[in-house]
Amino acid sequence: MLCRPVQRIYYNSGNGYTVADYQTQEELPKQVVTKQKGYYGLFRAVGVELPNDEGLEVELTGEWKERKYGWQYEVSCFHVHIPTTEEGIKAYLSSTLIKGIGPVTAEHIVEKFGKKTLYVLENQPEELLKIRGITESKLEEILKGYQRSTGMRDLMVHLAPFGITPRKIALIQEHFGSAAVSIVRENPFRLCEVKGFGFLTVDPIAVKAKNFKADDPLRIKAAIEHVMAEAEGEGHLFLNKQEILNRAGQLLNHRKAPGTVSDRAIKDAGNEMIHKDRKLVCYDGAFYTTRAFKAELGAAAMLVKLSLQQNMSVNIDRILRSVQQREKLILNAKQQEAIQMVFRHPVSIITGGPGRGKTTIIRFIIAIQEELNKEAMILLCAPTGRARQRMYETTGYPALTIHKAVGLTGETGEEEWNHLATMPEDLIIVDETSMVDMFLADKLFSCVKTGARLVMVGDKDQIESVGPGNVFKEMIDSGVIPVTILDECFRQEGDSTIISNADKINRNQLNLTFDDTFRFYPAADAKDAAAKIREIYEKELKENKGGTDDVQVLSPLRKDTEAGSDALNAMLREIVNPKRRGYPEAANGKVTFRQNDKVMQTKNNDEVSNGDVGSVLNIYQEEGTTKMRVDFGNGRIMKYEGEDYWPLTHAYAMSVHKSQGSEYPVVILPMLPCFRRMLRRNIFYTAVTRAKKKVLIVGSKRAIAQAIRTDFTARRNTRFAQQIRRIMQEVQKQGEKTA
């Protein structure tokens, strides 16, 4: 039905659900006309992200349904017609469909180019620079908005019949860029590459769009790729043959599948992925994605190469004594051993729990390196923005994220590799190494120059990396890299119950000590725990003078429970930053932001890193687009705008995984039986060791006991340690032959 928007009645920013009035010249059903109160051609439509800009011509496809409020047109898909009149072109340019052009700019453009405006945009966009107020950067923004609009329109026509919402179509467009339509038409299973599109979502679309048979090789390969990606998401670098057959078989033969796929067909497709497509590698009975295999093998080979560097041992006895005298601090035997190890070997590892003096050792290593060579370049780095910031605060020495240091930009798993040469630094110290996954380790080791010294510091008992592999533990277990384990506690404000309880947790001991610094509050269930967390949070905020950076709520789970970080965030935000009349809000996806909100970045970019926490400075309208500025400290102010996906979430509460690399004076932690699979020793230990002064646990002592008893740290499919040992042995044998 061809129509024009009249007004938007309702819009849900979370899911895009829209109620809007439209007017059409076409004949409407009798039952609809009788209820229009004399307005010819007026009707009400409901759907997802329906366009509501006046002056546009829209074609809606759907069916009439009688609802509580009368007859409504339920829209299954829509198409915006490209206007041909000057007024229509103005309306199109200034609509929400195209970012970067407001009503005034649209007026100037159409005044200059008239009906040729869209031709100019397509073929001679540089002509727009002749219009006052359009700079090169502004033109780039306009063209990006126009191209996105046309691409979105084409994708909408192709995918809307399959129930894909405009918001998801925007994600597809962002992922594939200008080639999105041709890519999706050629192989719909490539939609599995887009976040939020699993195989079971894409399968019926592909079957309808191209009539795929059940055992079509493209379909089977898509299922295998999904299985491998899912395994990497679980921390595995490889799967064995039977695991792939079982998982892929379940996917391919799901309830609504077009037929049955045999193990033989899966094996044939898998073999083709190995020998022809080169997407899989079979190594000694283990099946890797090519990327995962290259990362594991490459990291192992580079680590061995760095470890075998000659003439790297330096006698630092005199300098170490001098630095201790200058710092008026005598290190214990283990600390001195760790520092000596660093300067005797090109690669070394230092591990220990909280309060074991790791930060002190890093400061001493820097001081000794500067005494040895004042011209030497030193790099401190950590896996996340928060860990990097803490490294800088505790050492007083500049630090980078590993991503920044090696030239990785973009979201985890989808980074762009911009580094073309090795890093120039002579000494590289990596903190929180337990958070480094296999892919990041491979990039890091490959960038270390010959002659550089690499020191990896971390706590081997913390949670494994979010990405695949178990890099830090595997390096320690390999027996190839020199390791110093710090086991003496120095933190005085400790004699701390927090540290002694952390040690008990690691030793599988249930007799935790509860006192003023380590408290327990019983809760019957998640709802009760959330209510008690609210009370405790308000009380602690008052004691800490309202500082949300000083009181952090952590949860083992993010979703599906009232005691998860998502639900707790919504509750705590209303305490700290309630809605105020007259103050603007910005909705993006399912999240609504307010001025002064505490937020966390969830994606790496050039300025801020995944895990960085900031505060919303202001929210404002510019040329019809909602924009928001966030201050992440150190002069880093980021702008978020329009309909783009914002990689932000609230940070009053966060998952334990997101808290890695950070420390807070006070940690509030729910521990409940409903957390089940997340009740693990290393998760509990990691949460407890984030606190410097106080841990407040809300929940069940039974859940605490289950977490302490459950040790899953070694259940990842990885052969990194084995590869390090194998390569080292091969190199040594080769050396013996040539000696």
UniProtKB/TrEMBL annotation:
Residues 8-83 form the ATP-dependent RecD2 DNA helicase OB-fold domain. GO terms for cellular component: exodeoxyribonuclease V complex. Residues 568-632 form the ATP-dependent RecD2 DNA helicase SH3 domain. Residues 650-698 form the UvrD-like helicase C-terminal domain. One of its GO terms (molecular function) is hydrolase activity. It holds the Pfam family OB_YrrC. NCBIfam families: recD_rel (TIGR01448). This is ATP-dependent RecD2 DNA helicase. It comes from Candidatus Limivivens merdigallinarum.
